[in-house]
Write a structure and sequence with these properties.
The complex is a heterodimer of chains A (417) and B (121). Chain A has 417 residues and is an alpha/beta fold. Chain A folds into 3 domains: 182 residues, FAD/NAD(P)-binding domain (3-Layer(bba) Sandwich), CATH 3.50.50; 133 residues, FAD/NAD(P)-binding domain (3-Layer(bba) Sandwich); 80 residues, no CATH class. Chain A is built from 9 helices and 28 strands. A 5-stranded parallel sheet of chain A has the order 5-2-1-9-20, covered by helices on one side. A 5-stranded parallel sheet of chain A has the order 11-18-12-13-14. In chain A, strands 23-21-28-25-26 form a 5-stranded mixed sheet, with no helix packed on it. In chain A, helix 4 packs across helix 5. Chain A is globular, with a radius of gyration of 22 Å. In chain B, strand 2 and strand 3 form a beta hairpin. The mean pLDDT of chain B is 93. Chain B is α+β, with helices and mostly antiparallel strands and 121 residues long. Classes of the chains: A alpha/beta (417), B alpha+beta (121).
Chain lengths: 417, 121
């Protein structure tokens, strides 16, 4: 098969990859190819059988598969080439892609531009270093989700869930509806990690106990999980001796963090931001490597799929423009600095060329704050939480108010009285 | 006199709202909310809490083990577990197109259970 003259190659076909490919095509890129390692388009959307997708992008309350279908149909309508069961194993700094395809065999080609849309993976038990034995019955929440929603298996009957991120909350509900007993959701922080909507509709609705400021300190069981030890933690997040309780269970689900999947990015020499785990990008979502763009969870972990698709569209448009012009002309770079109570900002740098939307997260929950971007933007907010990403739209007029020779802008979260 | 506590999901504040009802089950007091929309949401949630039910159905004669489904409109929150049990006996046979109803009027709620993706083989 002919893979020369590809304008834009998109790696991954989830809500980011599909959106990027569609946008690239709409912006005039003639030859757009999506490389997807699974057997169908959609990425993780297929195992997200619950609703809550597309509330903002489509103005409708869709399930994951329905959201995927909207994009997949458009991919087909636009004549975007799709290579399924195709695994990219390497991208060189010169944008040479090496891939292995079940149908086409070994592929090596050099597109004019690339969009990285590989999404993210879950943090595992090994990374948490939970003491105890290594019995069967320990799953990450996303793995359990795949088992229940795609493969048709119930991972266990008595479940404890560590971590109150959205995937964990969603699985608490799903397992309960499928007949398992979810004994507790255990969260180390004093507040829930996921959206309030999920706290209410997954935990409150089913009276599933939520243990805040607690953690699992030991796993028990030889061949199969038999129970866990749960202890209260102090402000320093360390277990408080004497507060241990034993909870009998046969399954432990881990919902303790998502990590952007950047193995390919690293191999290509893409510079990553330690604060996000994803590439350093500018307002076009271009990385430090000309012609390599990135969008979606591979850049930073989002809460809403709508934002994943919107962000990926920026990368897709950037990639199409790069393919057409050979490069992106950019004015001098302005670095966004994280100030008080700001954990990260994407993009990490901007120029003054176009209006830009900043996506950011705070470090800690706070009420009555003022979000400031240098002297050009200020907004009072009632509450900010790390689990709810914030968006700041900066217009060209606002950016024009920056000093000619400004090279940095400070983004911070001030307390209001 | 009864008291109900509802968490509003309208915005990240997640106000804990308290509703007090009298012996005729009329709402006499609402407190704890910080905006109008919140007040509206908790009143509706108190009066008629509903949820869209999403699940999967076992397939028959297909290489895919499960078909993801949803109700095409929300059903009473109190009937979710019953709904899950009602689907347990259902089997989906291809060909089925996304949006197609595989069960109508689930538990007399007026809601249909529809496929959220195709099941062609």
């Amino acid at each position: 098969m002919k893979l020369s003259d590809v304008d834009v190659a998109v790696i991954g076909s989830g809500p980011a990859g599909m959106a990027a490919a569609i946008k690239a095509r709409e912006e005039g890129a003639e030859s757009v190819v999506i490389l997807e390692r699974q057997e169908q388009l959609g990425g993780l959307l297929h195992q997200c059988i619950h609703n809550g997708f597309g509330l903002f992008y489509f103005g409708e309350d869709l399930t994951g598969p329905e959201y995927a279908r909207r994009f997949a149909e458009k991919v087909q309508d636009l004549g975007i080439r799709v290579l399924l069961e195709t695994m990219v194993t390497r991208i060189s700094p010169e944008r040479q892609i090496t891939a292995f395809s079940r149908h086409e065999g070994y592929l090596s080609f050099r597109p004019k531009s690339i969009v990285l849309a590989m999404g993210c993976r879950e943090r595992s038990r090994g990374q948490l270093n939970i003491p105890g034995t290594r019995p069967a019955g320990i799953f990450t929440a996303g793995t359990a989700q795949r088992l229940v929603n795609v493969e048709g298996f119930l991972p266990g009957g008595k479940v404890v869930i560590l971590g109150s991120g959205d995937v964990g909350l969603i699985m608490a509900r799903r397992l309960t509806l499928e007949g398992a007993e979810v004994k507790a959701v255990v969260e180390i922080l004093p507040y829930v990690g996921g959206l309030i909507r999920n706290e209410v509709q997954c935990l409150h609705d089913f009276q599933i106990p939520l243990l805040l400021e607690h953690t699992v300190t030991r796993i028990h069981g030889e061949r199969r999980v038999e129970g866990v030890t749960i202890a209260r933690v102090g402000k320093d997040k360390r277990p408080i001796p004497g507060t241990e309780q034993e909870v009998e269970c046969d399954t432990l689900l881990l919902s303790v963090g998502l990590i952007p999947e950047n193995e390919l990015s690293r191999l290509a020499g893409v510079e990553l931001d330690p604060l996000t785990g994803g590439p350093l990008v500018d307002e076009w979502r271009e990385t430090n490597i000309p012609g390599i763009f990135a969008g979606g969870n591979v850049v930073h972990v989002h809460d809403l799929v709508d934002n994943v698709s919107w962000e990926a569209e920026i990368a897709g448009a950037g990639a199409a423009r790069f393919a057409q012009r050979g490069r992106l002309e950019k004015k001098a770079k302005i670095i966004l600095k994280t100030g008080r109570n700001i954990r990260y900002i994407v993009p990490q740098s901007i120029s003054r060329e176009t209006g830009v939307t900043l996506y950011l997260r705070v470090r800690e929950m706070e009420e009555k704050v003022r979000l400031k971007v240098g002297d050009i933007f200020s907004q009072a907010l009632r509450v900010v939480k790390p689990s709810e990403m914030l968006k700041v739209e900066l217009s060209p007029a606002q950016l024009a108010r920056l000093d000619e020779d400004a090279r940095e802008i400070l983004v911070e979260c001030e307390r209001r009285s | 006199m009864a008291v109900e506590r509802i968490t509003c999901i309208g915005c990240p504040l997640g106000c804990q709202v308290t509703l007090e009802t009298n012996d005729r089950e009329e709402v006499v007091k609402i407190s704890g909310h910080r905006c109008k929309q919140g007040r509206r949401y908790v009143l509706e949630e108190h009066r008629n809490p509903v949820r869209v039910f999403t699940s999967t159905v076992l397939t028959e004669g297909s290489s895919q083990p499960l078909l993801p489904v949803r109700t095409n409109r929300p059903i009473p929150k109190t009937r979710l577990k019953e709904a899950a049990k009602a689907l347990a006996r259902a089997r989906a046979k291809p060909p089925i197109k996304a949006g197609q109803a595989i069960m109508t009027d689930l538990l007399d709620t007026g809601a249909d259970v529809i496929a959220t993706s195709d099941l062609l083989t």
